[in-house]
TrEMBL record, chain A:
UniProt-listed PANTHER family: PEP-DEPENDENT DIHYDROXYACETONE KINASE, PHOSPHORYL DONOR SUBUNIT DHAM
Function: General (non sugar-specific) component of the phosphoenolpyruvate-dependent sugar phosphotransferase system (sugar PTS). This major carbohydrate active-transport system catalyzes the phosphorylation of incoming sugar substrates concomitantly with their translocation across the cell membrane. The phosphoryl group from phosphoenolpyruvate (PEP) is transferred to the phosphoryl carrier protein HPr by enzyme I. Phospho-HPr then transfers it to the PTS EIIA domain.
Sorted UniProt keywords: Sugar transport, Transferase, Transport
Protein name (Swiss-Prot/TrEMBL): Phosphocarrier protein HPr
Residues covered by region (Disordered): 128-148
Enzyme Commission number(s): 2.7.1.121
Keyword Transferase: yes
Species assigned in the record: Cellulomonas bogoriensis 69B4 = DSM 16987
Catalytic reaction(s) noted: dihydroxyacetone + phosphoenolpyruvate = dihydroxyacetone phosphate + pyruvate
Enzyme class (EC, first level): transferase
Domain HPr: 153-236
Subunit note: Homodimer. The dihydroxyacetone kinase complex is composed of a homodimer of DhaM, a homodimer of DhaK and the subunit DhaL.
GO biological process, one term: phosphoenolpyruvate-dependent sugar phosphotransferase system
UniProtKB/TrEMBL annotation, chain B:
Protein name: Dihydroxyacetone kinase
Matches recorded under InterPro entries: DhaK_L_YcgS (IPR012737), DhaL_dom (IPR004007), DhaL_dom_sf (IPR036117), Dihydroxyacetone_Kinase (IPR050861)
UniProt KW keywords: Kinase, Transferase
Superkingdom of the source species: Bacteria
Keyword Kinase: yes
Any Pfam family: Dak2
One GO molecular-function entry: glycerone kinase activity
PANTHER family tied to this protein: TRIOKINASE/FMN CYCLASE, TRIOKINASE_FMN CYCLASE
Organism: Cellulomonas bogoriensis 69B4 = DSM 16987
């Protein structure tokens, strides 16, 4: 792992609980909770700075996740206290705390760098609402007009082979594979590049899943994703 | 008198004294439009600053005192005021690495503090926050310095303007910070952050007038 998470809340219990959930999803990722002040609510900039320093000292880049108002300010202030080269190794993304921490931890577990982990936290927002089939690549480098309407649409049905269902790690493996294709792919209608969206499907071992894609490269992408599902999302 | 490190220490001590004395007033202001913890948080932070100052020899430079104030407040205030005042004093400290402040240096210190508050809280004047007091103080300090005032008179102008800036928040409807949750109901009350800013800048001036 190259990225550690620092979870900041006004409440020590919120920070600890959130870190507990993130660790369960990503057992090899260092997740440090920071919250509370003198046994009550509050955030100490110094405590955030110490936590970030500790992670940096261990050679890890750091993604700091925060909940509300002054926790955000405390995190940003802590980063301002760092030397420039250290600050360059820290990210403070926006995002919902619990969902963002889980998504970020899963991403960090995959060995991703700080930018990718931070994006996972930020991206945890749309994954909670109705999910649209516009995966990575949409809007960047490839215009929407490239995606033919009603053309090149590919749909494949596969059976999930994953003993514990589509939980965090197989979902993360699948999301990463979809992300790597650069083609918008959905599984049962949700964005397959989103770890959280896949987890929310609650798909179980043996369940039929519909993998769909549209536009240039969709055939190969869908086939690759379907094969991965069929093969049992090994190592997960 | 010179605005040196000894002045900065007095400023910090007097800030603590005035905020502790006015704690209930700040709590009451914050209770009306916030979560009621501003006076408590600030009194705790500045009392910690007082303790800290008693443990170290008076530094040579103004900036070193301001840095100590910044880092202590950051770790002890707890609420939004910690990062806000912490950043203000930290930015002010960075450009105050001198043995005493010229009139231009006083202006620069206040400008740096305002910039810190704005960048941390992302608020602009007119949104019923401490920015209204800081911005008024900076404007008045610039004017006084331009008119050839000495450092103490620059601080006096800043303190007067900060108090006027705090009063100007009374009729405002908050659009930033916790008070913005109240919308129209936030009007009619002074912003507690602007009120405490005025107290701190008044303390800065008072500390300069005593010797």
């Amino acid at each position: 792992m190259s990225v550690a998470l620092v979870v900041v809340s006004h409440s020590a219990l919120v920070a600890q609980g959130c870190a507990e959930m993130a660790r369960q999803m990503a057992p090899d990722v260092l997740v440090v909770p920071v919250g509370g002040l003198d046994g009550g609510l509050g955030t100490s900039v110094a405590a955030v700075a110490d936590a970030v320093d500790g992670c940096l000292g261990d050679g890890l880049d750091v993604v700091v996740l925060t909940d509300l108002g002054s926790a955000v300010m405390a995190a940003e202030t802590a980063v301002e206290l760092l030397e420039a080269d250290a600050a360059a190794r820290v990210r403070t993304p926006d995002g919902p705390l619990v969902e963002g921490a889980v998504a970020a931890a899963v991403q960090a577990q995959l060995g991703s760098g700080p930018d990718e982990v931070a994006r996972a936290a930020t991206g945890a927002v749309p994954a909670l609402g109705p999910v649209l089939p516009d995966g990575p690549g949409a809007g960047q480098g490839r215009g929407r007009s490239d995606v033919g309407v009603g053309t090149d649409a590919v749909t494949v049905t596969v059976t999930l082979r994953s003993p514990h269902g589509l939980h965090a790690r197989p979902a993360a493996l699948l999301a990463r594979a979809v992300g790597a294709t650069g083609v918008p792919v959905t599984v049962d209608g949700v964005n397959a590049a989103s770890v959280l969206a896949l987890m929310k499907l609650g798909a179980r071992d043996g369940q039929e899943l519909t993998v769909a894609g549209e536009g240039p490269g969709a055939g190969e992408a869908v086939a690759a994703v379907a094969e991965l599902v069929r093969a049992g999302l090994a190592d997960a | 008198m010179a605005l040196d490190a000894a002045w900065a220490v007095r400023w910090a001590r007097w800030s603590a004294e005035v905020v502790v004395a006015e704690r209930e007033h700040l709590v009451e202001l914050d209770r009306r439009i916030g979560d009621g913890d501003h006076g408590e948080n600030l009194a705790r932070g500045l009392s910690a600053v007082q303790v800290k100052l008693g443990q170290v020899p008076v530094p040579d430079q103004v900036g070193e005192v301001l840095r100590l104030v910044a880092t202590t407040m950051m770790s002890t205030v707890g609420g939004a005021a910690g990062p806000l005042y912490g950043t203000a004093f930290l930015r002010a400290a960075k450009i105050s690495g001198v043995s005493s402040l010229s009139p231009a240096a006083v202006v620069a210190m206040l400008e740096a503090a305002l910039e810190g508050v704005v960048s941390r809280g992302r608020a602009s004047p007119g949104e019923k926050t401490m920015v209204d007091a800081w911005a008024a103080a900076v404007g008045a300090a610039q004017e006084a310095e331009g008119a050839g005032a000495d450092p103490v008179a620059v601080l006096a102008a800043a303190a007067d303007a900060a108090e006027a800036g705090a009063r100007s928040t009374v009729p405002m409807v908050a659009t930033k910070g916790r008070a913005s949750y109240l919308g129209e109901r936030s009007a009619g009350h002074m912003d507690p952050g602007a009120a405490s800013t005025a107290m701190l800048l008044r303390a800065a001036h008072a500390a300069a007038e005593s010797s």
